[in-house]
Specification:
218 residues, mainly alpha, 2 domains, 9 helices
Length: 218
Protein backbone atom coordinates (compact mmCIF):
# COMPACT_ATOMS: atom_id res chain seq x y z
CA UNK A 1 0.00 0.00 0.00
CA UNK A 2 1.30 3.43 -0.86
CA UNK A 3 1.43 6.53 1.32
CA UNK A 4 -1.40 8.14 -0.67
CA UNK A 5 -3.64 5.15 0.04
CA UNK A 6 -2.96 5.32 3.78
CA UNK A 7 -3.66 9.05 3.91
CA UNK A 8 -6.91 8.63 1.96
CA UNK A 9 -8.08 5.92 4.37
CA UNK A 10 -7.25 8.18 7.31
CA UNK A 11 -9.37 10.95 5.76
CA UNK A 12 -12.32 8.54 5.49
CA UNK A 13 -11.83 7.57 9.13
CA UNK A 14 -11.60 11.19 10.23
CA UNK A 15 -14.83 12.13 8.50
CA UNK A 16 -16.95 9.19 9.63
CA UNK A 17 -15.25 8.84 13.04
CA UNK A 18 -14.74 5.11 12.63
CA UNK A 19 -11.91 2.63 12.39
CA UNK A 20 -11.45 0.95 9.00
CA UNK A 21 -9.59 -2.37 9.46
CA UNK A 22 -6.50 -2.48 7.24
CA UNK A 23 -7.19 -6.04 6.15
CA UNK A 24 -10.57 -4.97 4.78
CA UNK A 25 -10.15 -1.42 3.52
CA UNK A 26 -7.12 -2.13 1.36
CA UNK A 27 -9.12 -4.76 -0.50
CA UNK A 28 -11.48 -2.00 -1.64
CA UNK A 29 -10.53 -1.08 -5.19
CA UNK A 30 -13.33 1.40 -5.99
CA UNK A 31 -15.29 4.18 -4.25
CA UNK A 32 -18.29 1.85 -4.32
CA UNK A 33 -16.42 -0.84 -2.41
CA UNK A 34 -15.18 1.70 0.14
CA UNK A 35 -18.76 2.94 0.51
CA UNK A 36 -20.08 -0.57 1.14
CA UNK A 37 -17.41 -1.16 3.80
CA UNK A 38 -18.14 2.13 5.59
CA UNK A 39 -21.90 1.56 5.35
CA UNK A 40 -21.62 -1.95 6.81
CA UNK A 41 -19.48 -0.70 9.71
CA UNK A 42 -21.88 2.15 10.47
CA UNK A 43 -24.82 -0.24 10.35
CA UNK A 44 -23.07 -2.56 12.78
CA UNK A 45 -22.27 0.34 15.10
CA UNK A 46 -25.94 1.26 15.23
CA UNK A 47 -26.74 -2.27 16.42
CA UNK A 48 -23.85 -2.66 18.87
CA UNK A 49 -24.48 -1.16 22.27
CA UNK A 50 -20.77 -0.84 23.11
CA UNK A 51 -19.92 0.80 19.76
CA UNK A 52 -16.34 -0.41 20.07
CA UNK A 53 -15.25 0.71 16.59
CA UNK A 54 -16.10 4.36 17.19
CA UNK A 55 -14.72 4.37 20.73
CA UNK A 56 -11.37 2.93 19.63
CA UNK A 57 -11.19 5.36 16.71
CA UNK A 58 -11.67 8.25 19.15
CA UNK A 59 -8.93 6.98 21.46
CA UNK A 60 -6.53 6.44 18.57
CA UNK A 61 -7.30 9.90 17.21
CA UNK A 62 -6.26 11.51 20.50
CA UNK A 63 -3.10 9.41 20.66
CA UNK A 64 -2.03 10.38 17.15
CA UNK A 65 -3.13 14.03 17.05
CA UNK A 66 -2.62 15.20 20.62
CA UNK A 67 0.18 12.95 21.82
CA UNK A 68 1.93 12.44 18.45
CA UNK A 69 2.12 8.67 18.75
CA UNK A 70 2.57 7.03 15.30
CA UNK A 71 -0.61 5.33 14.08
CA UNK A 72 1.27 2.14 13.28
CA UNK A 73 2.31 1.83 16.94
CA UNK A 74 -1.27 1.78 18.23
CA UNK A 75 -2.93 -1.60 18.66
CA UNK A 76 -6.03 -2.28 20.75
CA UNK A 77 -4.38 -5.25 22.48
CA UNK A 78 -1.19 -3.43 23.54
CA UNK A 79 -0.44 -2.72 27.18
CA UNK A 80 -0.85 0.84 28.41
CA UNK A 81 2.67 0.85 29.81
CA UNK A 82 3.97 0.43 26.25
CA UNK A 83 2.16 3.59 25.13
CA UNK A 84 2.89 5.61 28.25
CA UNK A 85 6.48 5.19 29.49
CA UNK A 86 6.71 5.49 33.26
CA UNK A 87 9.18 8.39 33.09
CA UNK A 88 6.70 10.65 31.30
CA UNK A 89 3.23 9.29 32.03
CA UNK A 90 1.31 11.84 34.09
CA UNK A 91 0.66 14.61 31.52
CA UNK A 92 -0.11 12.42 28.46
CA UNK A 93 -2.51 10.31 30.55
CA UNK A 94 -4.41 13.39 31.72
CA UNK A 95 -4.61 14.70 28.16
CA UNK A 96 -6.09 11.39 26.99
CA UNK A 97 -8.63 11.27 29.82
CA UNK A 98 -9.77 14.85 29.20
CA UNK A 99 -10.36 14.10 25.52
CA UNK A 100 -12.19 10.77 25.75
CA UNK A 101 -14.42 11.45 28.77
CA UNK A 102 -16.83 14.29 29.51
CA UNK A 103 -15.76 14.51 33.15
CA UNK A 104 -12.59 12.60 34.05
CA UNK A 105 -13.41 10.32 36.98
CA UNK A 106 -11.07 10.32 39.98
CA UNK A 107 -11.15 6.52 39.74
CA UNK A 108 -9.33 6.74 36.41
CA UNK A 109 -6.50 9.06 37.44
CA UNK A 110 -3.00 7.68 37.89
CA UNK A 111 -2.02 6.60 41.40
CA UNK A 112 1.11 7.23 43.42
CA UNK A 113 3.59 4.40 43.91
CA UNK A 114 2.96 2.61 47.21
CA UNK A 115 5.83 4.24 49.16
CA UNK A 116 4.69 7.78 48.28
CA UNK A 117 1.06 6.89 48.97
CA UNK A 118 1.99 5.58 52.42
CA UNK A 119 4.05 8.67 53.23
CA UNK A 120 1.24 11.05 52.25
CA UNK A 121 -1.31 9.01 54.18
CA UNK A 122 0.92 9.16 57.25
CA UNK A 123 1.19 12.95 57.06
CA UNK A 124 -2.57 13.27 56.67
CA UNK A 125 -3.18 10.93 59.61
CA UNK A 126 -0.78 12.86 61.86
CA UNK A 127 -2.42 16.16 60.90
CA UNK A 128 -5.79 14.77 61.97
CA UNK A 129 -4.38 13.57 65.32
CA UNK A 130 -2.69 16.95 65.82
CA UNK A 131 -6.10 18.66 65.85
CA UNK A 132 -6.53 17.39 69.41
CA UNK A 133 -3.08 18.63 70.45
CA UNK A 134 -2.28 21.82 68.56
CA UNK A 135 -4.56 23.30 65.89
CA UNK A 136 -1.77 25.40 64.38
CA UNK A 137 0.44 22.35 64.05
CA UNK A 138 -2.48 20.45 62.53
CA UNK A 139 -3.06 23.22 60.01
CA UNK A 140 0.64 23.33 59.05
CA UNK A 141 0.76 19.57 58.60
CA UNK A 142 -2.38 19.57 56.48
CA UNK A 143 -0.98 22.44 54.40
CA UNK A 144 2.22 20.42 53.93
CA UNK A 145 0.10 17.47 52.81
CA UNK A 146 -1.67 19.58 50.18
CA UNK A 147 1.63 21.04 48.93
CA UNK A 148 3.16 17.59 48.58
CA UNK A 149 0.02 16.31 46.89
CA UNK A 150 0.31 19.10 44.30
CA UNK A 151 4.06 19.05 43.66
CA UNK A 152 4.33 15.28 43.64
CA UNK A 153 1.47 14.84 41.16
CA UNK A 154 3.84 14.18 38.21
CA UNK A 155 5.06 11.16 40.18
CA UNK A 156 1.67 9.48 39.75
CA UNK A 157 2.66 6.57 37.53
CA UNK A 158 0.49 3.62 38.59
CA UNK A 159 -2.46 2.81 36.32
CA UNK A 160 -5.85 2.43 38.01
CA UNK A 161 -7.18 -1.05 38.70
CA UNK A 162 -8.80 -2.62 35.66
CA UNK A 163 -6.90 -0.51 33.11
CA UNK A 164 -4.14 -2.67 31.68
CA UNK A 165 -4.62 -2.78 27.92
CA UNK A 166 -5.52 -0.04 25.47
CA UNK A 167 -8.91 -1.58 24.73
CA UNK A 168 -9.78 -1.28 28.44
CA UNK A 169 -10.17 2.46 27.81
CA UNK A 170 -13.16 1.78 25.55
CA UNK A 171 -15.27 1.18 28.65
CA UNK A 172 -14.62 4.70 30.00
CA UNK A 173 -14.81 6.51 26.67
CA UNK A 174 -17.78 8.76 25.88
CA UNK A 175 -20.68 7.03 24.19
CA UNK A 176 -20.63 8.35 20.59
CA UNK A 177 -23.59 10.14 19.12
CA UNK A 178 -26.01 8.45 16.74
CA UNK A 179 -24.69 7.97 13.23
CA UNK A 180 -27.19 8.21 10.39
CA UNK A 181 -26.02 8.07 6.76
CA UNK A 182 -27.66 6.55 3.72
CA UNK A 183 -25.48 4.63 1.27
CA UNK A 184 -25.95 7.42 -1.29
CA UNK A 185 -24.71 10.02 1.18
CA UNK A 186 -21.68 7.92 2.06
CA UNK A 187 -20.82 7.42 -1.61
CA UNK A 188 -21.04 11.16 -2.26
CA UNK A 189 -18.74 11.88 0.68
CA UNK A 190 -16.27 9.17 -0.35
CA UNK A 191 -16.09 10.66 -3.86
CA UNK A 192 -15.72 14.20 -2.47
CA UNK A 193 -12.87 13.18 -0.18
CA UNK A 194 -11.20 11.16 -2.93
CA UNK A 195 -11.40 14.08 -5.38
CA UNK A 196 -9.98 16.53 -2.86
CA UNK A 197 -7.22 14.25 -1.64
CA UNK A 198 -6.17 13.10 -5.10
CA UNK A 199 -6.72 16.53 -6.69
CA UNK A 200 -9.00 15.12 -9.38
CA UNK A 201 -12.18 16.68 -10.74
CA UNK A 202 -15.12 15.15 -8.96
CA UNK A 203 -17.04 14.26 -12.13
CA UNK A 204 -14.16 12.00 -13.20
CA UNK A 205 -14.67 9.71 -10.25
CA UNK A 206 -17.41 7.10 -10.61
CA UNK A 207 -18.66 4.50 -8.16
CA UNK A 208 -16.85 1.74 -10.06
CA UNK A 209 -13.67 3.70 -10.86
CA UNK A 210 -10.56 1.71 -9.94
CA UNK A 211 -8.41 3.80 -7.59
CA UNK A 212 -5.16 2.48 -9.02
CA UNK A 213 -5.89 1.73 -12.69
CA UNK A 214 -8.33 4.57 -13.42
CA UNK A 215 -7.41 7.26 -10.89
CA UNK A 216 -3.69 6.67 -10.44
CA UNK A 217 -3.65 6.23 -6.67
CA UNK A 218 -0.33 5.01 -5.26
Amino acid sequence: MGLDSVELVMDFEDHFKILLPDEEVFKCLTPGMVTDLIYSILQKIEKDKCQTQVAFYKIRKVLTDKLKIPRANIKSSMRLEQLFPKKNRYHPWNVLLSEITFHPDLRHRLLFPRDIEYSLSAILFISVIAIFINTILAFLLFFLYLLLLYFLSPMRTVFPAGLIFLNDLIEISNCPTKIDYSREQILAIVIDISAEKMQIERNLIKEDSNYVKDLGLN
